[in-house]
Design goal:
Blueprint (H helix, E strand, L loop, with lengths): L8 E3 L2 E3 L39 E3 L23 E4 L13 E5 L9 H5 L2 H8 L4 E5 L7 H16 L5 E6 L1 H13 L6 E5 L5 H4 L14 H12 L4 H6 L13 E6 L8 H13 L5 E6 L25 E4 L2 E4 H19 L5
Parallel strand pairs: 5-6, 5-7, 7-8, 8-9, 9-10
Antiparallel strand pairs: 1-2, 3-4, 4-6, 11-12
Helix pairs in contact: 3-4
Length: 350
């Protein structure tokens, strides 16, 4: 059994764990691409974020002297916003099963505390099942990947080499999580989860998400938005942010989830990534879970509606990334996520 060490740092009346020992071989964080700078992109979206649940520590309350310390993404650079959530299952409150790094989406331009706040339902799910969470923001566009890698390096440094760390991301946050898994290398992440993750930006241009009748809000529309954000359609640049380009280095257990009625990311983004990883590493498995379309009124659906007009949310539906599903569908997926992550870190079954 791995004994975890803790530091009694009192913050907001909580005992914060030492996230303790510098890893023997931390990988250097590669510099972000020099171009584009995202200078002409829209300003980050900001909104009032509701107060977090019990056991969540907001970095903004500590300035540059927060729990993860200063200079996370570079000397003299202000830390992006982040939240640390402690387990609240009553069993692992001071000794979590592992650390789950949560990464938001936003098309590489949506950043800020409001976007991190959207991760709170997911983070709370992990916390009530014994995980500590670190939900992170990042700078826009080309700086996003370097920031995510830097956050991981800091968490690994503080947690030590034996603490299990996984990552979960939504949309392009899932892309960043998958690339992080590849860049962290063997012994880095124990598992990675991508919810509606974009795995190949270039393939979006000719892709078809659901339903095909959508215009503007579609796979090609998402491609246009991302290339506009980066101010380039250069395949060399786009490949740096496409997990499929990292398939040869990808050895981390992965779970990809997608709503059947995802209007932005085609299912081929998941299947092509799995195929590329399995070609590079025969026997390695990338699991794919499809969340079913919700009921249409009182009737269950056999497949999804054919037209956008039928894509109407009913009281029993719940939102999933880029789409909707039934409550039962979401509950099943969450149970699959939990079983997947717990198995990856060797946690005992409940």
């Amino acid at each position: 059994m791995v004994r975890r060490r803790w530091l009694g740092v009192v913050a907001l009346g909580l005992s914060l764990p030492l996230l303790g020992v510098v890893a023997a071989s931390a990988r250097a964080v590669p510099p972000p691409p020099s171009e584009p700078t995202c200078a002409q992109r829209p300003k980050p979206f900001e909104a009032v974020v509701p107060p977090p649940e019990r056991g969540v520590i907001e970095s903004a309350k500590y300035g540059q002297n927060g729990p993860l310390g200063s200079d996370i993404v570079g000397a003299g650079v202000a830390n992006p916003y982040y939240e640390i959530g402690m387990p609240v299952d009553g069993v692992h409150d001071t000794k979590p099963i592992g650390v789950m790094i949560e990464i938001h989406g936003g098309g590489y331009v949506g950043v800020g505390a409001a976007y991190v706040g959207r991760l709170r339902p997911d983070a709370d799910f992990w916390r009530i099942h014994g995980w500590e969470t670190v939900s992170i923001d990042y700078r826009r566009c080309a700086q996003s990947l370097g920031d995510v890698l830097a956050f991981y390096a800091r968490v690994r440094q503080l947690a030590g080499p034996k603490m299990p760390i996984c990552a979960s991301g939504q949309s392009v946050g899932g892309s960043l999580a998958l690339i992080l898994a590849a860049e962290a290398g063997p012994g880095g992440l124990s598992c990675v989860i991508g919810e509606a993750a974009v795995t190949d930006i270039g393939a979006l241009a000719a892709g078809r998400a659901y339903p095909s009748g959508f215009r503007g809000v579609s796979a090609p529309g998402l491609y246009d938005a991302i290339t506009a954000a980066f101010a380039t359609s250069d395949p060399t640049v786009l490949s740096q942010f496409s997990p499929i380009s990292y398939a040869a280095a990808f050895t981390t257990p992965a779970l990809l989830g997608r709503a059947d009625n995802d209007i932005l990311v085609p299912v081929s983004q998941a299947t092509s990534f799995r195929q590329a990883v399995q070609q590079a590493h025969p026997g390695d498995v990338v699991d794919i879970e499809l969340l079913p379309c919700p009921a249409l009124g009182p009737l269950p659906l056999l497949g999804c509606p054919d037209t956008p007009e039928q894509l109407v949310q009913t009281p029993g539906d719940v939102v999933f990334v880029h789409g909707t599903t039934s409550r039962a569908g979401l509950t099943h997926f969450r149970s699959q996520e939990l079983a997947f992550a717990d198995a990856a870190v060797g946690a005992p079954l409940p």
